[in-house]
Amino acid sequence: MKEISVEELIGTHVVDSEGKKLGRIHEISAERGEDSCLVDAYYVGGRAMIVRIARWAVPSKMSSALESKLVRPFRIPWDEMDLSDPRHPRATMCKEQIKRVAR
């Protein structure tokens, strides 16, 4: 099993299986085990960083209003992300197959 640093992935551009741009990785969801963390999903989106900053810096009501106006990020399951080249992550599905979620 290959280990990749989270710092290596956050902010990296992601493309789909056809080479279409999806955005940047802005969040990684993981489950903590006894000895390690197992990645569950990657959240990717063009405006997702704005949402993250808003959650931290803006009061919650304003942050929620801002989030509702922005595009929801893609949720890419761990097994649908090709990280064989961590500098160029690639979803193994086409853009139309990947779900967008509210975060």
Could you walk me through the main structural features you see in this protein, from its secondary elements to its overall organization?
With 103 residues, the chain is an alpha+beta fold. The protein has a domain at 6-47 and 73-100: SH3 type barrels, CATH 2.30.30.240. 23% of the residues lie in helices and 33% in strands. It has three helices and seven strands; from the N terminus they run H-E-E-E-H-H-E-E-E-E. The protein has a five-stranded antiparallel sheet with strand order 1-2-3-4-7, with helices on one face. A two-stranded antiparallel sheet has the order 5-6. It is globular and about 40 Å long.
Subunit organisation of the chains? single chain
Strand content: 25-35%
Biggest beta sheet summary: 5 strands, antiparallel
CATH architecture of the domain at 6-47 and 73-100: Roll
- What is the helix/strand order? HEEEHHEEEE
> Helicity range of the residues?
10-25%
Strand order of the largest sheet: 1-2-3-4-7
- In total, the number of strands is 7
Low-confidence stretches: none
By secondary-structure content and strand pairing, the structural class works out as alpha+beta
CATH top level of the domain at 6-47 and 73-100 is: Mainly Beta
Q: Remind me, CATH topology of the domain at 6-47 and 73-100?
A: SH3 type barrels
